[in-house]
User: Fold this.
Amino acid sequence: MAGYLIRRLWQSIVLLIIVSMIGFGVLHLTPGGPLSQYALTPGMTQDAMDRISEQMGLNRPLPIQYLDWAWRMLQGDWGTSYRDQQPVLTVIGRHLFATMLLMVSSTVISIALGTWIGIRGATHRYSTFDYAATVGAMIALSIPTFWFGLVGIYIFSLELGWLPAGNMYTIGDGSVLDYLHHLILPSIVLALVNIAIWSRYMRTATLDVINQDFVKTARAKGVSERRVLMKHVVGNALLPMITLAGMQLPNLLSGALVTETVFTWPGMGRLFLDSLGYNDYPVVMGLLMFSAVLVILGNLIADIVAASIDPRIRLA
Amino acid sequence: MTAADIQTTPQRWWHSRGFRRFAQHRLAMVGMAMLFLLTLACIVGPYLLPYDELYIDLRARFSPPMTDDHYLGTDPLGRDIAARLLMAGRISLLVGFFAMVLSTAIGTVIGVVAGYYGGKVNSVLMRFVDAFLAFPSIFLLLALAAFINPSPVMITIIIAVTGWMEVARIVEAEVKSLRERDFVLAGRMLGLRNTHIMFRELLPNMVGPIIVAATLTVARAILLEAYISFLGYGIQPPLPSWGNMLNGAQQYLATAPWLAIIPGITITIAVTSFNFIGDGLRDALDVRTDPA
Assistant:
């Protein structure tokens, strides 16, 4: 395990370094590069720009600038928001909870539904249900998330009036129930794509396991079909799902951005778009890097969890 | 002499097992039919409709579908939605198609080089693939789109630049599995250049997986264009795209729901077609896939 841990940790560090290089590259694409936030200040002169450039050390060679930038990032100095003059990490931190809440609840929904659909599809192979689930999954993967959100709002908020059309809580209420009420629609919208992915995966995985010797042995011992399914089949199929969940993280974050926009959900995605609108490049860059770091960490944790359960992974 | 010369007379392509299996794939055929109709409508349609996609008629604002000659209604400026939808289709489909061509090209070159040379070259290139995959695609796309001039060409390029990794991974795995085969060794002993072995000998063996990945990449590219245009950073009005037609549709959801419903259904149909076709090609060309 220790060997696997060190190897995996090392890989993540290398990945972080390359990710930071790409981020640094994108930063220099911004109009005015790292100076962009000053370029918009009224009354800014070229002289003053040059002076700031000198102060910030932007006339040094790029590799030195990169090292300096990366070192400050490591120390937690991610710059200052142009919009509200607060440290970028503080601004991001304020929006982290909303996004996490949305991502966790949508993951719970998608895993529960996806697993059920997938197993049922595998045990009732080639049935109408299986066929509908297959086609349905492909269509679900083709529906633009934001549009699905709009249709959801149209049906459940405007026509039926059952669910709120946006925001995380009602001002003046904010009870747990109120949060849950606001959470339902965006979570389902965000979950759609992952329900499709999990159900496809679960179907294949169940079919793989269902005919293996240990399952036949369990059946021959007289274990009930239900117990065989739950204990032997699902237990074995669920494990790779941990790794897969890690791999789906970037897509989940992308989906969250779009969902948050449609539902005016006060999370990181919403912050990202608002910051783009205000040309608040430090926050935009911060969120870009933060999301990539989140993905790398998520994958690392998923792999470690999977390896601690399954010895085959860490010995491979 | 190349490997191509030793081949026996080629079978006609429509007699091949792969083509027959594709033609018998029900979903793939549905996808082909939908795509054909949609493309045809986008090419021919605008000439048949009574309105130009840019023609503004403020008296006819928010006409619901089927009022007069506005078969799909009008938008907040009184522009004909049917005309806009079909012109938008031209742009969205072209952006999707060319983004696929470009990202498949980038992915193939990187995958072949990484797989063929192996060792350090492989680990550097593949770590870059991993690093690009670590960025949520919409975050990266929006950050890039905000800093460039959002013309259709630039949008196509940034979608391609953020979407080549899947192809690179597939091609790299294929090349790795073929690298030690005798025909590659024979090529080396004949003194063929590395580029020749990579692109003339190895590449033709992985056309199947590349075609499947490319088809699914079109679907992805159309969706991504829709996302960023919906958010206001993609194709810019007055040029219509399926995504930017939905931009602003939310505020009229209660009064003019067709503004949101019609372009959304069209996007779904287009993307579903490509996903169906990709599924059919995967079965027909016997491409094994990851369980996801």
